[in-house]
Amino acid sequence: GARADEDLLDGLNPQQREAVTYRGQALLIVAGAGSGKTSVLTRRIASLLRNREAWPSQILAITFTNKAAGEMRERVEHLVGDSARGMWISTFHSACVRILRREAEQFGFTKSFTIYDSGDSRALIKRLVKEHEADAFGLTPAATQGKISKLKNELADAESYARTANMSDPAERVFVELFAAYQRELQRANAFDFDDLIAQTVFLFRAFPQVADVYRRRFRHVLVDEYQDTNHAQYALIHELTRPPGSDAAPLAGSGGMMIFEAEPAAEDGASLTVVGDSDQSIYAFRGADIRNISEFEKDYPGAKVVLLEQNYRSTQNILSAANAVISHNFDRKDKRLWTDVGEGEKIIGFTGYSQHDEAQFVADEIEALRRAGVDYSQMAVFYRTNSQSRALEEIFIRSALPYKIMGGTKFYERAEIKDALAYLVAVANPADEMAMRRIINRPRRGIGDVTIETISRYAVDQQITFRDALANSSALGVGPKIQAAIAHLDAVLAEATEIMLPASGELAPPTAVADGLQLLLNKSGYYDALRASKDAQDEARIENLDEMVAVAREFARNNPEGTLLDFLTEVALVSDADDLEDASGSVSLMTLHTAKGLEYDAVFVTGVEEDLIPHRISAGEPGGPQEERRLFYVGITRARQRLYLSLAMTRAQFGEVTVAMPSRFLQEIPLELLHWRQSPGDVNSRGGTQSRALNARRGGFGGSGSGSGKRYGDDLVPLARREPTGNLERFANKIPSKVRDNGDLELAPGDRIRHDDFGEGRVDAVTGEGAKRVAHVRFDVAGPKKLLIKIAPISKL
Ligand code: ATP
Ligand code: MG
């Protein structure tokens, strides 16, 4: 008979069909890039719904970014109509937040918990490191944070870690103390950090099987995209969710006999689980991702069906052959050969610039040429290994008036003024969050210093109330009348905003409540006024950013008429690298190679294909590092549909120093006949005379014979003319140093007064580093302390 999902199978190859229609407990789809893994997952969901095998609410699909989740939801809705509402299609983090908001009260949190991003958790760890004097044991905040994060990804807590660590080592003892203190502080603040969102959900399920069973009964179909990049905690979460309900109702260890569950024979099956992945695209080992989650899937889920997809529908044969050739240099992998019937296509184009600006100019020119040939800007993307590489590209793109959009690089939410605005909102949403309170209590300046803050904190501890509640008792604090008035004012402003955003009596706030409340906070707290009164040019940009923040809140209200303050804070906290505030239509997309995962474009430029960038310098010492870098390069080149460009620069200015770059080893892994050099490294040698011998020795194939004068190009340091920000380029203007200068050997000593083009006048506190890396530590009269690279900062001595 005809299937209700017949049209969903149109155009699929037999393996893809099987992946959509197989009905069993566990299904693993392994396949190379562009073979339709994500498409198949989407159709599989549509097919389950269309055949009425599942209600939308029984489906949980996990994607790698919120953006990917949005796209998948749209496609499913397109395939099955409106009935798709109620499905959970989200990232691991978003799904866990939803679960935790419902269940947090089970284990000592409230549903209004704050989500600490890595900056927040770094700030907290910094405070604790100081309090424990842990620096003396080599426990820097960064190292401590990294280690805690890694342990949480492995589902270890301070206690379990202490059992395995060598506790006779004093550094280990201090670390365990720090870890435990950090968790205590999070709990006290009613907050979870990013890693906690997943780990605590797993702990919750393990500690409260009856809670886990609610979700096991609800989600009958669990589907996970990009499974190769799951870490242990995520793996465990999926495992918990797909067990048969009732299967682990065992007596609880450590429950003090309060909760004893009888083990019952499992009457129901676990949810069906579908995972798709490509171990050649695993690029998050540094965040604990474990390829073994894929390679051992069949062991973990006995009887699992495995489907292989080998036809690629994305790229031309030339692009695929290059990808196959590169990835085949990784050992310890299952060889799979992708093929396509799209045809050979154009050759891959190589280009070597003298400098990164020269390289960027080539990219810009080529983009314009493609545009004239009919390729839409939105169908072109430029990738790089590290965020800092975007600067040269942006400078050239702005000069060429080329519309572009940085994906995940705007760091909007990391700006100080935006963090302040969010802290005001958090202070309203989660009064227990003392860190947010400490952040806003003297922003704008109200004359409340560290001494007063400690007074309030002590009062709160003594009275066993929150920091926020202590403000309401300003008269009991024993502070001077001016400070008391300032505290009372802040308290009143927070109370007024609370009334707007969180009306009492359970009444639903109007959709615009968050935006209105935010505006009120910024106005009545004096925040806007302080910026307006400032003479610092940067403060004008800050006002614009805050206006943008209010606009984001209004936009949120339009998209989520029933969205609450908590929903808004959740969304903001979970914006990930690849997610974006605005839409990129009509612009070229710029992003890191990591962010490019899962995406596709007609034309792709992979830039900076140099040793030390890709493979990155830091990967050299890591076990498996170079192999992971090769996978990253593979991810980059397999994003291209029609055209692929690989470019590099012979000289690169980084940290104010100009270094000579070497072509990446990965270039040599691409068969010569697939690559057409517009300008090879050899061409640059013979014309420019950079250090040629080393380059030619690396690879005869590059050709050219330079004279090797050793001249270093300095064009990256040429001052840029000050630009009048125009139109949509304005927002990027404050990201780019307005002036880059070559100061040569400007002599500075502590005590010198200097003037900076943007920051105004200041006093040099110290000078560190040597040669081109000399750094001045300057305390600016208005802008505060800054570190400047003396060689290129726009400064002069007074
Ligand atoms: P990646 O590994 O990069 O995540 P993927 O395996 O998830 O890739 P998709 O993004 O699902 O691949 O598909 C790649 C492209 O191929 C998409 O443009 C998709 O629409 C197209 N495609 C997939 N299957 C078919 C098919 N059977 N016929 C035509 N086009 C297809
Ligand atoms: Mg995909």
Automatic annotation (TrEMBL):
Q: Which UniProt keywords apply?
A: ATP-binding, DNA-binding, Exonuclease, Helicase, Hydrolase, Isomerase, Nuclease, Nucleotide-binding
Catalyses which reaction? Answer: Couples ATP hydrolysis with the unwinding of duplex DNA by translocating in the 3'-5' direction; ATP + H2O = ADP + phosphate + H(+)
Against CDD domains, the record matches this protein to: DEXQc_UvrD (cd17932), SF1_C_UvrD (cd18807)
What are the start and end residues of every segment in region (Disordered)? 682-714
**Residue stretches making up the UvrD-like helicase ATP-binding domain:** 10-316
EC number(s) given by UniProt: 5.6.2.4
Task: Write down the PROSITE patterns for this protein, in alphabetical order.
Answer: UVRD_HELICASE_ATP_BIND, UVRD_HELICASE_CTER
Q: Report biased composition (Gly residues) as residue ranges.
A: 700-711
Binding annotation for ATP: A31, G32, A33, G34, S35, G36, K37, T38
**GO molecular function terms noted in the UniProt entry:** exonuclease activity
Name the top EC class: isomerase
Q: Which residues form a coiled coil?
A: none
Annotated UvrD-like helicase C-terminal domain residues: 317-598
Q: Which family does it belong to?
A: Belongs to the helicase family. UvrD subfamily.
What PANTHER family does this protein map onto?
ATP-DEPENDENT DNA HELICASE SRS2 (PTHR11070:SF2), UVRD / RECB / PCRA DNA HELICASE FAMILY MEMBER (PTHR11070)
Give the protein name, as stated in the record. Answer: DNA 3'-5' helicase
Organism lineage reads as: Bacteria, Bacillati, Actinomycetota, Actinomycetes, Micrococcales
